[in-house]
Amino acid sequence: MNTLKAEKRTMDIKAKRLRREGFVTGNVFGRQIETSIPIKMDKQAVERLLKTCGKGSRITLDIEGTPYNVLIKDVEYNPLKGQLEEIDFQALVEDEKVHSVAEIVLLNHEKVTGGVLEQMLEEISFRAYPDALVDKVEIDAGKLRVGDTVHVKDLDIARNPKIEIQTDPEAVIVRVQEVYNTAEEDAEGEEA
């Protein structure tokens, strides 16, 4: 499991100033934490972590030598600056189900021929105990043909008895639509 180091921060220094100094701010909350813990983390370390982990991933958060088993709950970016600003973490408790999301990753999408691949959902919402958490769901799009549709209920995560799916099981994740070539039809119509 990935580990990220963090320091507790006092609220007398504004988050904006910390970001200018190369930090990302955040909070840790959970059932066994009385009040949320405001933290700061090295921006470069956070960016390295986010290359392999995203929202819904489990990591170890080391706050000044104390390890916490946490879930990345929210990642906030400043859309104007394109910069990472804040990350919130939920401390996990072994006997408590948590709400999380699994990112949908399409594999072999370049192998789809004769149609256009349309991805309708980016993530699946679910509840599970910490030991059953999933951060990514992979779909092999290379096996899909024109007219094929993949629903939430078709995935292994939906059949896992340890996971309660919150997203509609009938929701379409991805489908392959037929390509209609109107340019050729228009050219034929002009010749007539």
From TrEMBL:
Subunit comment: Part of the 50S ribosomal subunit; part of the 5S rRNA/L5/L18/L25 subcomplex. Contacts the 5S rRNA. Binds to the 5S rRNA independently of L5 and L18.
Pfam families named in the record: Ribosomal_L25p (PF01386), Ribosomal_TL5_C (PF14693)
Single GO BP term: translation
Chain ranges of the Large ribosomal subunit protein bL25 L25 domain: 4-89
Matches recorded under InterPro entries: Rbsml_bL25/Gln-tRNA_synth_N (IPR020056), Ribosomal_bL25/Gln-tRNA_synth (IPR011035), Ribosomal_bL25_b-dom (IPR020057), Ribosomal_bL25_C (IPR037121), Ribosomal_bL25_long (IPR001021), Ribosomal_L25_dom (IPR029751), Ribosomal_uL5_bac-type (IPR020930)
Family membership: Belongs to the bacterial ribosomal protein bL25 family. CTC subfamily.
Molecular-function annotations in GO: 5S rRNA binding; structural constituent of ribosome
Listed name of the protein: Large ribosomal subunit protein bL25
Cellular component terms per the entry's GO annotation: cytosolic large ribosomal subunit
Function (record text): This is one of the proteins that binds to the 5S RNA in the ribosome where it forms part of the central protuberance.
Keyword tags: Ribonucleoprotein, Ribosomal protein, RNA-binding, rRNA-binding
Domain Large ribosomal subunit protein bL25 beta: 98-178
